[in-house]
Amino acid sequence: MVTEMTIDTHGYVKALTAAGVPAAQAEAHVEALRDKVLPELATHQDLKTLGSELRREMSDLKSDLRGEMAGIRTDMWKMSFAVVLATATLVTFLQKLLA
């Protein structure tokens, strides 16, 4: 969401010329501000909106990560069971072989 920002360009030119800046230079400065700087500035509302979007994305990523971790945990239990079963089978085989 972009909010339109306004500036009192006439008052700004008056303040610059009162400070001794030539009128043409003051006009050019105001034009540069209006055309180049102001469109790039974020408002407080822009930042609040961005913060909300980032919090929502981080929450989604957190949920995804928890799901992935649960899947990994399940896989680790399966692998542990397979190792225990394979070890028991090997021990039984070796006992029969050596008996």
Cα distance spanning the termini: 80 Å
Based on helices, strands and strand pairing, what is the structural class? Answer: mainly alpha
- Helical content band: over 70%
- How would a crystallographer describe the biggest sheet? none
The overall strand count is 0
Number of helices: 3
Query: What ranges have pLDDT less than 50 throughout 5 or more consecutive residues?
Result: none
Average residue pLDDT: 90
Report on this structure:
Helices cover 81% and strands 0% of the residues. The termini are far apart. The model has no long low-confidence stretch (mean pLDDT 90). The chain has helices at residues 9-18, 23-37, 44-98. The chain is built from three helices and no strands.
List keywords for this structure.
99 residues
Describe this structure in a few short sentences.
This protein is mostly helical. Helix content is about 80%, strand content about 0%.
Secondary structure elements and their pairing?
Elements: H1 9-18, H2 23-37, H3 44-98
Helix pairs in contact: 1-2
